[in-house]
User: Which sequence fits this backbone?
């Protein structure tokens, strides 16, 4: 199947700093990528849809000024958590679609810990 | 809200077939059934998808009822590495704006 990578795989930062997470489609181009957040023992929650060359679409309750999404190319989307706080600590996962059915493939996830 | 209903957990003996059910009674004609699994602390892994015919690949088989209101994922010979949370998802085909909404999934325990 298609490969989606994320970088970094884990990050620890101080409260108030910003953290950037990259999501790359390695062997295909993706005009749309999705960003999810997962808290311990919970399911994935969709945060936003990242659209290449245009603004992201955020789900209700997700602060667009706090979670900045940039989809600058067909193989790269970035999620920046601005002014991170301990409650932003979570597992962040991206996905990208490929093929006629836009079957989604997921990255390995990034674990963010805010101290 | 998720469009699917799954049992919260299931056990299966190693080497036996694991049959995971999913109800999707409100599925639309253009929606596919997808199955993913998530092993602890990893991103979800694609398993299989189907529209109305039964499907099989190297990982699993997918059986969809004739009315398409439910389906079953079959892992033919479960191993300990199949312990994971399994998600059943319905999604329209080819529509890049169609979101994937995850339900709570089924936590499958493979017993040695």
Assistant:
């Amino acid at each position: 199947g298609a490969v989606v990578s994320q970088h970094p795989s884990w990050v620890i930062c101080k409260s108030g700093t910003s953290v950037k997470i990259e999501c790359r489609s390695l062997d295909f181009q993706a005009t749309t990528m999705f960003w999810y957040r997962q808290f311990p023992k919970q399911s994935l929650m969709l945060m936003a849809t990242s659209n290449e060359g245009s603004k992201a679409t955020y789900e209700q309750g997700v602060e667009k000024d706090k979670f900045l999404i940039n989809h600058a190319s067909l193989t790269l989307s970035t999620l920046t958590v601005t002014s991170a706080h301990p409650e932003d600590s979570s597992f962040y996962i991206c996905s990208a679609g490929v093929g006629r059915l836009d079957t989604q493939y997921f990255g390995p996830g990034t674990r963010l810990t805010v101290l | 809200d998720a469009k699917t209903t799954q049992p919260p957990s299931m056990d299966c003996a190693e080497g036996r077939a694991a049959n995971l059910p999913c109800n999707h009674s409100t599925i639309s004609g253009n929606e596919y059934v997808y199955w993913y699994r998530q092993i602890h602390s990893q991103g979800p892994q694609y398993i299989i998808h189907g529209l109305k015919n039964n499907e099989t690949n190297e990982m699993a088989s997918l059986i969809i009822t004739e009315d398409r209101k439910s389906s079953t994922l079959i892992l033919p010979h479960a191993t300990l590495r199949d312990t994971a949370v399994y998600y059943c998802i319905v999604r329209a085909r080819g529509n890049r704006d169609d979101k994937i909404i995850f339900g709570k999934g089924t936590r499958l325990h493979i017993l040695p």
User: Anything to note?
Assistant: Chain B is about 0% helix and 45% strand.
